[in-house]
Every structure is written in C-alpha cells, then in structure tokens.
Write a structure and sequence with these properties.
The strands form two sheets. The chain has a six-stranded mixed β-sheet with strand order 5-4-3-6-8-7, sandwiched between helices. The chain is an alpha/beta fold. α2 crosses α9 and α7 crosses α11. The N and C termini lie far apart (59 Å). The protein is 48% helix and 10% strand. Bound molecules: Fe4 H S5 and zinc ion (2 copies). One zinc ion binds next to α13.
C-alpha cells in the first residue's frame, strides 16, 4: 500500500475516500479536511475565541491539536466528573488532559464537580435516582450546563466538542429509529448562539473515529484509551457496532448517511420550532441566570435541590 501523493509506504488506507496516505501526508490531509468543514459551516474564524471541551480522549485531544496547528485561538476546559468505578476514570482523564495542555503550552481550566459543586456524578445519580438508572442523562445535563456557563462567563465565541462521524451517525440512527423530529431538527454540526447560550460546533463530525485515532497515534498524543465505565453496553455502542458492520460491506456508508441527512436538513426536511426557543430564552433561572423553560430553577439548579 503506497501513499497516493508521494509513493512512500502508506500508514492508513481510507476505503471510503479511496485514499492511502503516508504519515506526513495524512498529518496534512486531516487538518485540511477539518478546516474545510469549519469554513463550509461557518463554525468560527481566526478572530474567535474557541473553547474546546477536553475529555482526555483521542477525539478532543486530536481536535485541540489540529485547531492549535491551524492557528485558532483556543483554550480548553475539562470537567472532572468524579467517576471512579474501580478504574479511576476521571482522575486519569483529568491528568491526561492536563499533561497534553502542559506539553503544548496551552491553557486548560478544570471544573471539579466534587470540590466546586459538592457532589460527583455517581453521588448525584444515587441521590436523585437511587442509582437505579445509569448516570448518563444526569451527566449530559451537568456537562451541557457547565460548558455553557463557562463559555458565557469567559466571553468565548464558540464551544467545540470532539464528536466524530461515528458518534453523529449513531445518534442520527437512534433519532431516526425513534422518529425524534425535534432532535432531528437540531442535528446541525453547528448550533448558533442564542441569548444566554454560546454557539456550539463539532468540527470532527465528518471525521471517522478511526481517522481521529490514527491522527492521535501518529502525532504521539497520549490519550485515555478506555471508555467511561458507564458507557459499557450503552445503546449508542450497540448502534455503532451495527453501523460498523454495514460500513465494512459498503465503505463510505456512514459518511453518506450523515452527509445526506445534512442535505435534507438544509432543505428544511425537519422544521425547527423557533417559537419554542424564544419562549425558553425569555425566562431566566433565578439561581444561575441561564435561560430555562419554567421560570423557576433550571434543570441543573433543580438537580441540587431535590
Ligand atoms: S455521559 Fe455516561 Fe458519558 Fe457521563 S456517565 Fe460516562 S458514559 S461520561 S460521554
Ligand atoms: Zn506521502
Ligand atoms: Zn440554574
């Protein structure tokens, strides 16, 4: 297998693009792809302050590395969730994110749930759901709130996350199976800013997980290579397995599934209920000041009052 550009030994063969590349050309090709997607969807520009949500996994670290190489103004934020189910997941994730930031002279802030809010994710889950449910819905709510709050306080222009194509295709698959029209209407790789909410973007959403992993390995980025213990057996992993089997038989199928969905979105296939958004933005949480639907405490503040 030879590099299409220089004929040297290739390190990656991307069947979906019918493209094999050597290490040097792959490390140029991937940032180029990301840059094109950022521009196509007007995600942000070189004057914007970009807040990178850094988990310590390969995607967020590879994304941060690429944005830094592309000369964007980035800062990172890591949320220490306090998940320690036998493998010290959160400790290792935080240390890995900190190490990457130190090695590359980048600014990383850490929000620690335990010390800043008095409870870890498993503790909140045990208190609110008596541990009967997996903590993912609580965790998702907490992460969204903290990221937005951090971005608003710090006057960032955009929050970026490392969601890759495999993540997006699995979410799209689940939303299609359930005909969740409201979620399908919001599946854009970039969500504009609204009063009280910072713009959000996913620059990796057409990058395969395998491509992001290859980038991290070739750049010698050390990342946490195991999943959160609560993600084991999740539905999303199951959908990823199904999509991977289809992808094996039809290279490029996942990318087409996602890109054709974006085309349908752009043609207005899933109308967005703007009125609902305006209704949400008109009421503010009396505790934290973030927009909410109820006029009382927002879902995040309510969690700590139950
Ligand atoms: S939501 Fe659930 Fe993740 Fe939170 S509890 Fe772990 S698996 S980290 S993306
Ligand atoms: Zn080459
Ligand atoms: Zn609140």
């Amino acid at each position: 297998m030879r590099c299409r550009k220089c004929g040297e030994k290739a390190v990656i063969n991307m069947r979906q693009h019918r493209l094999s590349l050597c290490s040097q050309h792959y490390l140029e090709w991937l940032p180029n792809q990301v840059q094109r997607f950022i521009e196509k969807y007007c995600m942000f520009n070189l004057n914007d302050r970009v807040l990178v949500a850094v988990s310590g996994g390969k995607d967020s670290l590879a994304l941060w590395d690429i944005l830094h190489r592309l000369k964007y103004q980035t800062e990172g934020v890591h949320i220490d969730l306090g998940i320690d189910e036998g493998i010290a997941y959160s400790d290792v994730s935080r240390q890995t994110a900190e190490q990457f930031a130190n090695d590359n002279n980048l600014t990383l802030k850490v929000v620690n749930l335990d010390s800043d809010f008095g409870e870890t994710i498993p503790e909140i889950n045990r208190r609110t759901h008596r541990g009967r449910m997996k903590p993912c819905s609580v965790c998702g709510l907490v992460k969204r709130h903290i990221l937005n709050d951090f971005a608003q306080q710090g006057d960032f222009d955009v929050i970026v996350t490392g969601h890759n194509l495999d993540d997006e295709a699995a979410i799209l698959f689940a939303n299609t199976l359930n005909w969740s029209l409201e979620l399908l209407a919001r599946g854009y790789p970039v969500l504009p800013a609204k009063p009280g909410f910072t713009k959000k973007a996913k620059p990796f959403s057409r990058i395969y997980e395998r491509e992001s992993a290859a980038y991290a390995v070739l750049r010698e980025i050390s990342y946490v290579n195991y999943e959160c213990p609560f993600s084991i057996d999740s539905k999303q992993l199951h959908y990823k397995t199904i999509l991977n089997e289809w992808e094996d038989e039809n290279p490029g199928m996942k990318l087409r599934f996602y890109l054709h969905y974006l085309q349908a979105l752009n043609k207005g296939a899933f109308p967005w209920e703007q009125d609902k958004d305006e209704e949400i933005a008109s009421q503010l949480c009396p505790r934290c000041g973030q927009p909410t639907t109820t006029g009382g405490p927002c879902a995040f503040c309510h969690l700590f009052e139950i």
